[in-house]
Design goal:
elongated; about 290 residues; Rossmann fold; alpha/beta; about 20% strand; ten-stranded mixed sheet; 2 domains
């Protein structure tokens, strides 16, 4: 490990997968932009064998796992340093399960960054279940990257519904859009029930749309005053939130949503929406969760 990092570092889960390597590259660029350090973390432990009928491999097996983990960290560190020689980089090999290790790391991190892929098997830190768990319970925003591209242009997209998690997402999205000098696309989606049985109780659906427009305007007004340099494009849609967000995120450099981290319906940003986006977002996904909801 190199010297101490001033402030909160950006933490990256490393496991040797291509998605983790891309996550480290993105996180290094982000740490450079934020003038903070980068911490590369991997986990080794026996948790995977706790339910294997009492079977525990010999110590030599775990020694080999640790050796491989150190090699993965060294390779990731070398790649990052080659691209960002002035960046302060730490490496940390931790004992324990991946989710628990990263959750602990999130307590003192600015961001935790993970790669993600559709097939979860075989990877310690980039499997979808780890990303979902960290996004639901982490102590700082979680960023999940899919696919092979690392966009550096395009807008920042944010999902807005007025919940506490959404309010935090809006705050982060304005900050990110300002720092990146990018347009902010604010998405507010709801499902119109005009074709269902409830339609008979609603005389004027234009009233519903007008109300939703007011909700979005109210959620953005204070932030537009704080960040007058950010151009905001508003998107209102009577459609499923995931579908609208995925459409708007095409060509974006960042998608920001909130997550309460537990069940219940809160509108646009209920947990299932964030979970689906983790597995399908076409650009880096930032998930914010208010600490008071955990």
């Amino acid at each position: 490990m190199t010297g101490a990092i001033e402030g909160r570092p950006i933490v990256v889960g490393i496991d040797g997968s291509d998605s983790a390597r891309r996550a480290a590259t993105w996180a290094a660029a982000e740490a450079t932009r934020r003038h903070t350090g980068l911490r590369l973390v991997t986990a080794v432990g026996s948790a995977a064998f706790s339910s294997a009928g009492g079977f525990v491999p010999p110590q030599g097996f775990f020694d080999e796992l640790e050796s491989q983990a150190r090699a993965l960290l060294a390779a990731a560190e070398a790649e990052v340093r080659a691209a960002y020689p002035d960046l302060e980089v730490q490496v940390r090999l931790c004992a324990g399960g991946a989710a628990a290790v990263l959750l602990d790391e999130s307590k003192l991190a600015a961001l935790v960054v993970l790669g993600s892929h559709d097939a979860e098997g075989g990877h310690l830190l980039t499997g979808g279940s780890v990303a979902v768990g960290l996004a639901a319970h982490g102590h700082c925003p979680t960023v999940v990257l899919r696919g092979g591209t690392l966009p550096t242009s395009g807008p920042v997209v944010v999902g807005v519904d007025g919940s506490p998690a959404s309010e935090l997402a809006v705050a982060l999205a304005f900050e990110e859009a300002s720092a990146r000098r990018a347009e902010l696309v604010a998405v507010h989606a709801w499902i119109e029930y005009g074709s269902g049985s409830i339609a008979q109780y609603v005389a004027d659906w234009s009233f519903v749309e007008g109300h939703e427009r007011e909700v979005l305007a109210e959620r953005l007004s204070g932030w537009q005053e704080k960040y007058p340099d950010v151009t905001v494009r508003r998107v209102l849609s009577e459609d499923k939130p995931v579908r609208v967000l995925l459409s708007c995120a095409e060509g974006a450099q960042l998608l920001v949503v909130g997550n309460r981290g537990h069940g219940g319906f809160t509108g646009l940003l209920l947990g299932s929406t964030s979970r689906k986006l983790i597995h399908s977002a076409p650009c880096p996904l930032m998930v914010a969760r208010p600490s008071e909801s955990g």
